[in-house]
Design brief:
Chain lengths: 254, 178
């Protein structure tokens, strides 16, 4: 397995952007606010270093392709787990600020994840057999299922935010957006690759790297972007609010 | 092949949805220009529309077919009012959310109360919209949502009790707001 100069360039770009993301989290004191996301970004830098080392050893014929394959999927499994933890952290951060709905963030995340997992298993069971051997096919099905669940969870979160009318902090929105962009492009690429087979492997790998870099670029951008300045709230609006609420309750009481 | 197309279609829809959300994010309204964001709601006209006595009068005076037509028009107008209230609640929620990071504790706590009340109103308005859509399908039916109202009242009383235990001064403000 040899990588082209473009592959290396995309790989290094992703790592540099991840380092920028970690630096932004540290510099703007967001680490305590997003500890799981910081861990996820840090883990991905470490993951790249490990995979680069294994790849280097493979090129020097000190390791076989199987070593790289199993190392990749072991670190990827941890990455998938951490990815779900980050989405759970986003759910909690969105709902935690409001007393009325504080408890439901984790419940909605768990409920949504279970439903989407069932849907993903259903989709995977209907997937047509591709040209790839068994292990690769299993891995691609797993990747597809994971991305379906991740995309679904993020769409569900945006729909809930719309329903409740919840505002998003810039940084929180950026983390969710970056995840969503990466997961959706990766889902489309994986679905296509599963159909075409090994001949599309180089292009698939590059699309994955570009999607990941786009996601990390979005994180970096939103983490550096300033939050809107707070405006003093005026209690006079609460008078109207009370009247409106009573009028709405009257609709129910009819 | 169908599964592949479905998956790619789903991914494209998710991507477009995310892009649309990112491009159409609304800024936090400046309080000075809040009038430009808030849609006025004529509460008197709204209350008249949802007055049960008014509905009973129309039901008695009009033939059933005519009543259903008129009632649908009234329900549509009510829906428009509720939609405005839901939109206004979302705007006030953003104002409250932005101000809760204010270093002045009083402002921050007032903002927190504003945000929570706005959220409660938003949820009520969305549920009221669902009820109204149900009544649009069956304009002659009386859909009872009394249990939900009771649950809402229990919730607000519980909040006042909790606030009274934690901070009596804040409790009176909560009681005044809800």
């Amino acid at each position: 397995m040899s990588l082209s100069a473009t592959d290396y360039l995309l790989w290094v770009t992703g790592v540099i952007l991840l380092m920028l993301t970690c630096w932004a989290l540290h510099r703007r004191r967001f680490v305590h606010e997003f500890p799981v996301f910081f861990g996820y970004a840090g883990y991905h830098i470490l993951r790249s270093a490990v995979l680069f080392g294994v790849q280097f050893q493979h090129l020097r014929h000190r390791m076989t392709y199987n070593h790289y394959f199993y190392t990749y999927w072991m670190v990827e499994a941890v990455s998938i787990g951490l990815g779900f933890c980050v989405i759970n952290e986003i759910y909690r951060r969105v709902f935690d600020s409001y007393d009325a709905i504080r408890q439901i963030g984790s419940v909605l995340f768990a409920g949504g994840a279970i439903l989407l997992l069932l849907a993903a298993v259903l989709v995977a069971s209907f997937a047509a057999p591709g040209a790839d051997p068994g292990a690769v096919k299993a891995v691609l099905l797993l990747e597809t299922s994971v991305r379906v669940v991740q995309c679904g969870l993020l769409v569900f979160l945006f729909a809930l935010s719309f329903f409740f009318g919840l505002p998003w902090q810039n940084r929180l929105f950026g983390i969710a957006l970056g995840f969503g962009v990466y997961a959706s492009i990766d889902l489309a690429a994986t679905a296509l690759y599963s159909k075409i087979g090994v001949s599309a492997a180089p292009a698939y790998s590059q699309v994955q790297s570009i999607a990941y870099s786009c996601g990390v670029l979005i994180w970096t951008f939103y983490l550096f972007a300033p939050e809107p300045a707070p405006e003093p709230a005026d209690l006079m609006f609460q008078v109207n609010l009370q009247e409106w609420n009573q009028a709405i309750l009257d609709v129910w009481k009819r | 092949m169908t599964t592949t197309i479905l998956l790619i279609g789903f991914a494209v829809v998710v991507l477009l949805l995310l892009m649309r959300t990112a491009l159409r994010r609304k800024p936090v309204p400046d309080l000075g220009a809040l009038d430009a964001y808030i849609q006025p709601v004529d509460l008197r006209a709204f209350r008249n529309l949802i007055d049960p006595a008014e509905e009973d009068y129309l039901r008695e005076q009009l033939p059933p077919g005519k009543f259903r037509v008129i009632q649908r028009k009234r329900l549509r107008a009510t829906l428009e009012y509720v939609r405005c209230v839901a939109g206004n609640a979302a705007i006030l929620l953003r104002v409250g959310e932005a101000a809760r990071r204010d270093p002045n504790q009083q402002v921050a706590s007032a903002a927190r109360a504003l945000a929570n009340n706005a959220l409660r109103l938003r949820v009520n308005a969305m549920l009221a919209m669902a009820t109204l859509y149900g009544r649009l399908v069956l304009p002659g039916a009386r859909i009872s949502v009394g249990q939900l109202t009771d649950a809402y009242e229990n919730l607000t009383q519980g909040l006042v009790r909790l606030a009274r235990l934690q901070n009596p001064a804040f409790a009176s403000r909560v009681a005044a707001v809800i």
